[in-house]
Design a protein that fits this description.
Length: about 110
């Protein structure tokens, strides 16, 4: 088992370097077959948990490696959340306007 955990740490470090060379990763072992990753990119910090089996599966399959890469990238992508916040604000304004002036958006015809 210690060999599996060491191999998982190696895989995570390799994938993290592929995502961004400035991405720092700290791996903590959790009870059971779980790993906690603390990701640091500049001043942005994120945490994710991964199963040991899924990390080891990334070594054997390209799909598993890409899934791991995307999980790391999604956890550290600050622009994703910025755009999401702006979109939520725009949607709130649209719903408010729809309540105030429904005729602008809906047309009802009676035959």
């Amino acid at each position: 088992m210690p060999e599996d955990r060491q191999e998982a740490r190696r895989i995570i470090a390799e994938v993290a370097r592929a995502v961004d060379r400035r991405l720092a990763v700290e791996v903590r072992e959790l009870p059971g077959e779980r790993l906690q990753l603390i990701l640091t990119h500049g001043t942005h910090h994120a945490q994710i948990e991964l199963g040991l089996v899924s990390v080891l599966g990334a070594a054997e399959s390209a799909i598993g490696r890409n899934e791991l890469r995307l999980r790391l990238k999604r956890a550290t992508d600050t622009m994703l959340f910025k755009n999401l916040t702006e979109t939520l604000g725009s949607l709130s304004e649209l719903l408010k306007d729809l309540k105030e002036r429904p005729g602008r958006y809906l047309t009802v015809k009676v035959f």
